[in-house]
UniProtKB/TrEMBL annotation, chain A:
Classification lineage: Eukaryota, Metazoa, Chordata, Craniata, Vertebrata
NCBIfam families in the cross-refs: sigpep_I_bact (TIGR02227)
Subunit structure: Heterodimer of 2 subunits, IMMPL1 and IMMPL2.
The UniProt record lists the keyword Hydrolase: yes
Protein name: Mitochondrial inner membrane protease subunit
One Pfam family named in its UniProt record: Peptidase_S26
Gene Ontology cellular component list: mitochondrial inner membrane peptidase complex
Positions of the Peptidase S26 domain: 15-103, 106-151
Protein task: Catalyzes the removal of transit peptides required for the targeting of proteins from the mitochondrial matrix, across the inner membrane, into the inter-membrane space. Known to process the nuclear encoded protein DIABLO.
Automatic annotation (TrEMBL), chain B:
Gene Ontology, cellular component aspect: mitochondrial inner membrane peptidase complex
Organism: Chinchilla lanigera (Long-tailed chinchilla)
Organism taxonomic ancestry: Eukaryota, Metazoa, Chordata, Craniata, Vertebrata
Enzyme active site: S40, K83
Annotated protein name in UniProt: Mitochondrial inner membrane protease subunit
Free-text function comment from the UniProt entry: Catalyzes the removal of transit peptides required for the targeting of proteins from the mitochondrial matrix, across the inner membrane, into the inter-membrane space. Known to process the nuclear encoded protein DIABLO.
A UniProt-annotated Pfam family: Peptidase_S26
Gene: IMMP1L
This enzyme's EC code(s): 3.4.21.-
Keywords: Hydrolase, Membrane, Mitochondrion, Mitochondrion inner membrane, Protease
Compartmental location: Mitochondrion inner membrane
Family: Belongs to the peptidase S26 family. IMP1 subfamily.
The keyword Hydrolase is assigned to this record: yes
Subunit structure: Heterodimer of 2 subunits, IMMPL1 and IMMPL2.
């Protein structure tokens, strides 16, 4: 009797020890280093989800790269939606703070991106709920960089940071 | 001897990572102690007060009108601001000051909140930079720890109702 009780207690102790190590480490890793996510919707076609609803891409979200809020024009990033905080959206960065850009469908024809904000757009113009609808977004909403496509295997690739030349800013602060 | 030192170093690194991760989970999902600076929340929170902030309300979307929140500054994501929520999405708020002749109201957009400091004369808040997205809120302040003369739960806004409900 005493022997089986000792066995159970040792098992519980080892389980608790492992649990309190593994869970915080895993949660911290998924919050701070990297996680994966499935992309829904057609707003980033043809870069993401070219097959539409038949197959959704799964991307690697790199939190570590976004830890200092450093983004470049052309990066694909995920951010908290400014209209619905429960949802994350994945878009391409088109303009940084201080840039003046020509918008596509926004209420103002030309917009200067305020300090601490960025302008994001989906690659599939017209089918995208992006800055052309809700204006520049604060960098504080930045969630992660989308760096690689992981699934389906035939679409394994590194996502390149590419700014379409027709979407370059008319005037940027560095000039 | 080298083996012993290497073993000790690995154990130290292991413990540091483990406690660092527990600290991250505690600050991110439960709450933490914060020191506030600036005059914009007087008399409720003075300069250099130490308060306790909890992050559970943010994750469960339970922030209400009248809560004091910590949020990332909309113009500088690396710094935090501490203000009171005076309007939720859909509320009608007064967006001009009391000295303006023509009063104008506007509605807080979906997914945004309107922040105001308690010290209305000396506060840059939503009256200056507009409503901020809910996603910028980091936590809710509900308890003051220092100075001990002011220890306890935080008071309601001294400014009464400057807004009207929908």
């Amino acid at each position: 009797m005493a022997q089986s009780q000792g066995w159970v207690r040792r098992y519980c102790k080892a389980f608790c020890k492992g649990f309190f190590v593994a869970v915080p480490v895993a949660v911290t890793f998924l919050d701070r280093v990297a996680c994966v996510a499935r992309v829904e919707g057609a707003s980033m076609q043809p870069s993401l989800n070219p097959g539409g609803s038949q197959s959704s891409d799964v991307v690697l979200l790199n939190h570590w790269k976004a830890r200092n809020f450093q983004v470049q024009r052309g990066d694909i990033v995920s951010l908290v939606s400014p209209k619905n905080p429960e949802q994350k959206i994945i878009k391409r960065v088109i303009a940084l703070e201080g840039d003046i850009i020509r918008t596509m469908g926004h209420k103002n024809r030309y917009v200067k991106v305020p300090r601490g904000h960025i302008w994001v757009e989906g690659d599939h113009h017209g089918h995208s709920f992006d800055s052309n609808s809700f204006g520049p977004v604060s960098l504080g909403l930045l969630h992660a960089h989308a760096t690689h496509i992981l699934w389906p295997p035939e679409r394994w690739q590194k996502l390149e940071s590419f700014l379409p030349p027709e979407r370059s800013p008319m005037q940027s602060e560095e000039e | 001897m080298l083996r012993g030192a290497l073993g000790k170093t690995f154990r130290l690194v292991g413990y540091t990572i483990q406690y660092g991760c527990i600290a991250h989970c505690a600050f991110e999902y439960v709450g933490g102690v914060v020191m506030c600076s600036g005059p914009s929340m007087e008399p409720t929170i003075q300069n250099s007060d130490i308060v306790f902030a909890e992050n559970l309300s943010r994750h469960f979307y339970g922030i209400q009108r009248g809560d004091i929140v910590i949020a990332k500054s909309p113009s500088d994501p690396k710094s935090n601001i501490c203000k009171r929520v005076t309007g939720l999405e859909g509320d009608k708020i007064l967006s001009t000051g009391p000295s303006d002749f023509f009063k104008s109201h506007s509605y807080v957009p979906m997914g945004h909140v309107w922040l105001e400091g308690d010290n209305l004369q000396n506060s840059t808040d939503s009256r200056c930079y507009g409503p901020i997205p809910y996603g910028l809120i980091r936590g809710r302040i509900f308890f003051k720890i220092w100075p001990l003369s002011d220890f306890g739960f935080l008071r309601d806004s001294p400014n009464g109702h400057r807004f009207s409900d929908d």
